[in-house]
Amino acid sequence: MWFVLLLTLCPWVACRSAGDGPPADRGPMEQYARLAMPSRIEIQRFLTKPVSFAGSGNADGLEVILAAYDSAGDLTKLLGTFHFELQTRRLSDRIGTRIAFWPVEIGSQETLRQYRDRLTRFYCFPLQLDSPPLRPGRYVLSAWLHLPDGQRLFDEYEFSYDGGAAAPPPGRS
């Protein structure tokens, strides 16, 4: 009986691949992660703009278009938490007044698909204001990406809004 059991288990043990467990040397995985993870984010200045989510023409939010680049300078996917902040100030000013703050987490395939455009490989964040409309003036939009390894990436964009009619975001008419 033991002999039959031994013959039954031997093929199962012999067929297990070495890749079933964790790798013995984590160095190559860490190198790959450093290469593939974002090393820079960039707000796309010509595409990011005030929009009218309600379709009324009044700017009640921002459509933020953002790119994430790996260490080789190529567009890449990302995982982490964004913090977007809108302030009334100029880049040369040290202190401004916070208008809005939006945390956005990308932590699954579902949220990746929600925010990432597969064609352009940019990220699109529809950020609605809690107290619309956006008044005419100068603004600074700051974006922080908090990566799972604790690293933070940052970019900011200064823009003016004249109070004119804001178009609805693409896909909303």
Structural overview:
- Strand 7 and strand 8 form a beta hairpin.
- The chain has three helices and eight strands; from the N terminus they run H-H-E-E-E-E-E-H-E-E-E.
- The chain has a domain of 114 residues: Macroglobulin (MG2) domain (Immunoglobulin-like).
- It is α+β, with helices and mostly antiparallel strands.
- It is elongated.
- The strands form two sheets. Strands 1, 2, 3 and 6 form a four-stranded antiparallel β-sheet that branches. Strands 5-4-7-8 form a four-stranded antiparallel β-sheet.
Question: What's the quick description here?
Answer:
By secondary structure, the chain is α+β, with helices and mostly antiparallel strands. It contains three helices and eight strands, in the order ααβββββαβββ.
Task: Spell out the key features of this protein.
173 residues; alpha+beta; Immunoglobulin-like; four-stranded antiparallel sheet; 8 strands; elongated
CATH class of the domain at 48-161: Mainly Beta
- According to CATH, the fold-level topology of the domain at 48-161 is Immunoglobulin-like
Q: Which blocks of ≥5 consecutive residues have pLDDT under 50? A: 1-17
- Indicate the proportion of strand residues: 35-45%
